[in-house]
Amino acid sequence: MDHVDRESGVDPQRSRRGFQRDDTRWMQQLTAVAAHVERTGRLPSASRNADPQERPLGVWLTNQRRDHLIGSMPVDRVARLDALVPTWAGKSGPRRDR
């Protein structure tokens, strides 16, 4: 059972840098990244030179890689990323199944 602080809405045991508590927003971002990959055939870029609509998706994906690498991403989110964007982990290090 989660113990969420009533004032902040944060679960202190699961709150870590970069961790998005809003599952709806997280799923919207994941869907947008998957749509980008479907449309372009590649992962979104986080480069400052990237298209203004693409860059936020690339930054989001970079944050997901970091969270996964440091072990702060919940297993269900890893599974969702694996299912919708199989190449998402890129060169970010070992995956949970290795």
TrEMBL record:
Residues 1-24, 38-57 are annotated as: Disordered. InterPro entries: Helicase_assoc. Residues 23-84 form the Helicase-associated domain. This is Helicase-associated domain-containing protein. It comes from Nakamurella alba.
